[in-house]
Amino acid sequence: MASVSPCSVRWSSSSAASAPPSFSRSSPTDAFPRGRRAFRLRGGDVNGLPRALSVRAEAGVSKEDVVIVGAGIAGLATSLSLHRLGVKSLVLEQAESLRTGGTSLTLFKNGWRVLDAIGVGSDLRTQFIEIQGMVVKSEDGRELQSFRFKDEDDSQEVRAVERRILLETFADQLPPGAIRFSSKLAKIGRSENGETLLELVDGTRISAKIVIGCDGVRSPVAKWMGFSEPKYVGYCAFRGLGFYPDGQPYEPRVTYVYGRGSRAGYVPVSPTKVYWFVCFNSPSPGPKITDPSILKNQSRELVRNWPSELLDIIDRTPGDTIIRTPLVDRWLWPTVSPSASSGSVVLVGDAWHPMTPNLGQGACCALEDAVVLARKLANAVNSGNGSVEGALKSYESERWPRIFPLTVRANLVGSLLQWENPVVCSVRNNVVIPKLLRIGPMLEHTNFACEPL
Known about the structure:
Blueprint: E1 3-4, H1 51-58, E2 61-69, H2 73-84, E3 90-92, E4 104-107, H3 109-118, H4 121-125, E5 133-138, E6 143-148, H5 149-152, E7 159-162, H6 163-173, E8 179-180, E9 185-190, E10 196-200, E11 205-213, H7 220-224, E12 231-243, E13 253-258, E14 262-270, E15 273-281, H8 292-302, H9 308-315, E16 323-329, E17 341-342, E18 345-347, H10 362-383, H11 388-417, H12 422-436, H13 439-442
Helix pairs in contact: 2-6, 2-10, 3-10, 10-11
């Protein structure tokens, strides 16, 4: 591993012109066996090297071609996509291990097409139930409307996927040492040669030719690039994963229940697990609550007079899967919002475009970002004469026309579903949903072509 003297590096807030960097390249099938876990690097290891071999680099600044900040869905999908295309990357994760807590996420056909392109779709399908349709109910249990997905679109595929299993599946496919844990970003800047300098909380310094920010809704990389904090949309959500050791009894469909200023839903994930959520209006995000008993009691109180299966699912939810989150988004206004890339630094997923979950597209869009960016970046890197900055700008140009409308649409759908006015809610339940709602047009955004990497 190369190193430089600490005196040869200067922190700068702006990039300087430099010659195009050279990159090390590898075949996706060379020295990296598939199917092995990317284990935590212990004792200050860097890139899988023994500690004794990395002491010299620790005295100065270690050198990396591609650094990905964040080992969530966006970060691991991007790293794996690059790996499939022969580009190595180092993923920095601030936690001590994969953050596998939380519940599940719903993936539509666009998400599954990406997972197939990356090469993990088949493994995941065997673990999760395919959802056949959806039903919408009022809070008193009356059915308002129902649909079968394949009646509207024969190619549609919907499954709820446990976040833990998705992350572990990605990590298992990465080469050993690809993820470095306990690596929280403390500082970011530029060197005189145009590379990006990352300083970690533990004092480690890394000079990277390319930095990909996949560090979530509160992304420090996005903040450094000039993005504002995501905006709270006026409601919060409880989420959890009910557990039925002897088998869950629910049909393979999404069930939504709409009330006044609140709504809930549930969907089978596997033969023994059911994902649920409860959204409720709140003038402010409120304090952060982590006590599972408080979270469970508060969520139960919101739906205490609603269909009884909701209470049963909540009661069967282990405390470590219940979370409460304020919902936020960021609208990427043309010519007003910062660019998704700055020099050789770029954003992916929630770090760039946090959106509300009302269309079920947050994770799907992050997966789309990952493969689009990986293709463009790999073309620039592997060709030897491509422009990295041009590839990043091309990624933004392709993704923005898709991301911005989806973010706005998800926000507007959520606003309509969180109505409190009793007259408006009556019209929604008795006219709009049973007589006007059509699922086909609402799923057009899941059309996304994705060829294998």
